[in-house]
Amino acid sequence: MELVYTSDKVENQCTGVKAAKKLFGGDTLLATSLLARINALEKAETIRDIIVQPAFHFHNLGNKRGKDLQGFFAIDVKSRREQWRIILRPLDENKKPYEPCYIDQISSYVRIVEIKEVSKHYE
């Protein structure tokens, strides 16, 4: 899949060990796990390849605490026990978000994903 990042900062965090470690306060295991997740996203043919893997815990996000995350999804950086998530959304072939986004219907076709952020989005 093709990954599109919302900013250079997010791209650096997701592709560079130094920036990833800084994001996680020096935690090498979380940094390594993030880079592995990004690698898995890049190697997947479609988003469906990620959705079907229980270890990623792919889940839908909505409106929470004033954040409009409709159409966005999250996967675990490392595991359910960790609070860190990769926030992403599927894009069409023109790199536009699907509206409305019915992931069950489009998952076999999505080959471009936007990475919004890596965060503890539950906080």
Structural description of this entry:
With 123 residues, the chain is of the alpha+beta class. It has one domain: RelE-like (YaeB-like fold, 2-Layer Sandwich). The protein contains 5 helices and 7 strands; from the N terminus they run βααααβββββαβ. The chain has helices at residues 8-15, 17-23, 28-43, 48-51, 103-106, and strands at 2-5, 59-60, 63-64, 67-68, 73-76, 85-91, 112-119. The strands form 2 sheets. A 5-stranded mixed sheet has the order 1-7-6-5-2, with helices on one face. A two-stranded antiparallel sheet has the order 3-4. Helix 1 packs across helix 2 and helix 2 (17-23) crosses helix 3 (28-43). The longest helix has 16 residues, at 28-43. The mean pLDDT is 92.
Number of strands: 7
| Rg estimate, integer Å | 14 Å
Number of helical segments with 4 or more residues: 5
Structural class: alpha+beta
Strand order of the largest sheet: 1-7-6-5-2
**Helix residue percentage:** 25-40%
